[in-house]
Specification:
- It comes from Hypoxylon rubiginosum.
- This is Aldolase.
- Helix content is 48%, strand content 14%.
- The protein is of the alpha/beta class and 290 residues long.
- The protein has a single domain, classed as Aldolase class I (TIM Barrel, Alpha-Beta Barrel).
- Bound molecules: zinc ion.
- The site of zinc ion has 5 residues, from loops.
Length: 290
């Protein structure tokens, strides 16, 4: 979009990754430990990063928490954007557009396709005018994640030709396709059995200029993560993949350590899980200057 400000942080981070042949992690954070862990990992690895939160966080911790996250992310020595993941309720979109997010994912995938297009087009118009980039989901990615409803319908896969017209008609900056990926735990055979990579390739070829976003990454192997880069996956949403070691540590030590020691050591464990992804899997390490 000609009118879209290309100095938008999320846009710049993903555009550089797209051109540079690497991917950038979008790390779901629920508290300050997560935020500190992402910033430390990104600074140590000289990597760009995206911190993402759910609408639940805005409701639970209030808009002031979002302002803290943005202030911390934007003060880092590397490019870090702040993104709102799965914004479903129109009220939440309205609230989010008045907060300093760099980008917002509008999840209108439970609406009828024409309604989804109409809805997204209007949000893109308002958001882009404020300098906020928009990610949209097309088709439907099944499953439940923290604070998200479990979609109890057959998964609807993204059709490449419709993806092309969706992007043209709405003007969205990034697209989250549904190609057999699901939120939460995969069934037998895991993501390898569930993902339809030829379909994903067709989607990428239909809209090669649009950075694709990978949702449903729990249980994805390093090999498969690396593979997705060939299919235009530039933003890789990471939640439990980098959080489980931290959660486990906290569960084991919460009654043994003072809170200061628990947080200090917990954040270190969290950060090293993130660093591993930046260095070995996404290859975003060393890509902080563009
Ligand atoms: Zn998702």
């Amino acid at each position: 979009m000609a009118s879209f400000p290309h100095n938008n942080r999320t846009f710049q981070i993903l555009d550089a990754a797209s051109k540079g042949g690497y991917a950038v992690g979008a790390y779901n954070c629920y508290n300050d430990d997560g935020v500190i862990a992402v910033i430390r990992a990104a600074e140590r690895c000289k990597s760009p990063a995206i911190i993402q939160i759910f609408p639940w966080t805005i409701k639970f911790q209030g808009p002031h928490f979002v302002k803290y996250v943005v202030a911390a992310a934007h003060s880092a020595s590397v490019p870090i954007a702040v993104h709102l993941d799965h914004c479903i309720e129109p009220e939440d979109v309205k609230t989010a557009l008045d907060l300093p997010f760099d980008s917002i994912m509008v999840d209108a995938s439970t609406l009828e396709p024409e309604e989804n297009i109409r809805n997204c087009r209007e949000i893109v118009r308002v958001a882009n005018a404020k300098g906020i980039a928009i990610e949209a989901e097309m088709g439907r990615i099944e499953g439940g994640e923290d604070g998200l409803p479990v979609v109890d319908m057959d998964s609807i896969l993204t059709q490449p030709d419709l993806a092309k017209s969706f992007v043209q008609e709405t003007g969205v900056q990034f697209l989250a396709p549904a190609f057999g990926n699901i939120h939460g735990k995969y069934g037998p055979g895991g993501p390898d059995a569930s993902w339809r990579l030829p379909l994903l390739m067709d989607i990428h070829r239909a809209i090669p200029q649009i950075p694709l976003v990978l949702h449903g990454t729990h249980g994805v192997s390093d090999v498969l993560f690396r593979e997705t880069r060939k299919y235009g996956m530039v933003k890789v949403n990471l939640n439990r993949t980098v959080r489980d070691a931290y959660t486990y540590f906290v569960a084991q030590n919460a009654d043994k350590l003072e809170l200061t020691a628990l947080k200090t050591r917990g954040v270190e464990i969290y950060a090293s899980s993130i660093e591993r992804m930046m260095l070995d899997v996404l290859e975003s390490a060393g890509k902080a200057s563009f």
